[in-house]
């Protein structure tokens, strides 16, 4: 399956959840996967290379960093990859090369937060994805929730986003999530992401054969 992690809004947690979900799928669900880092910032590739020097273990997965302009030609070979492919995208939607990515996606995972600016971007993102791919399931992942904050627009936001896909259980704001690496999941990070990831896996990943 092609699992695309996107939102046109920057800094919502796309890269964080690309890494954490990958670690979770390998460590907890014993799945094989490949990460495709399509962000020009090379966030995942750089982190993965650093962690590879720090840890003695074998890596959980390989990371392939590609320029968005190379994506159309690479899709031909992605069929040979064992397991799921996790795509980490840059925070934009206005690049023509992204059209292929969204058309080939089997699942779009969209981290967001309950502030007005992020919501507006997320809604536009959802409209564009739906326009490009009528069928692809979209899961909205509420991220970085703080216990002390009363998110007044939450009900309204969930209602509007529900027209495009499902809302996953919330992931809270945790230092342990900021301290992530490409080899493990800390107990505290695991607690924060478990409900959301188990929801995504049981709704969209369990019943499908790998790399359909
Ligand atoms: N649940 C969380 N708890 C605490 N910090 C978080 C959480 N999710 C993300 N962050 C932090 O938010 C910042 C932005 O996250 P990240 O880089 O994953 O976003 P992004 O959407 O990939 O950004 P960009 O658009 O620049 O690619 C990082 O410092 C990350 O550690
Ligand atoms: Mg990123």
Please indicate the percent range of residues in DSSP E strands (runs of 2 or more).
5-15%
- CATH level-four homologous superfamily name: P-loop containing nucleotide triphosphate hydrolases
CATH topology descriptor: Rossmann fold
Structural class determined from secondary elements: alpha/beta
* Mean pLDDT reading: 94
Domain tally: 1
Molecules bound to protein:
adenosine-5'-triphosphate, magnesium ion
pLDDT below 50 for ≥5 consecutive residues: which ranges? none
SSE run: EHEHEHEHEHEHEHH
Question: What is the tally of beta strands?
Answer: 7
How many H/I helices?
8
**Over the alpha carbons, how many angstroms does the gyration radius reach?**
16 Å
Question: How would a textbook summarize the main sheet?
Answer: 7 strands, parallel
Q: How many angstroms separate the termini? A: 5 Å
Based on CA inertia axes, which overall geometry fits?
globular
Class, according to the CATH hierarchy?
A: Alpha Beta
Report the CATH architecture. Answer: 3-Layer(aba) Sandwich
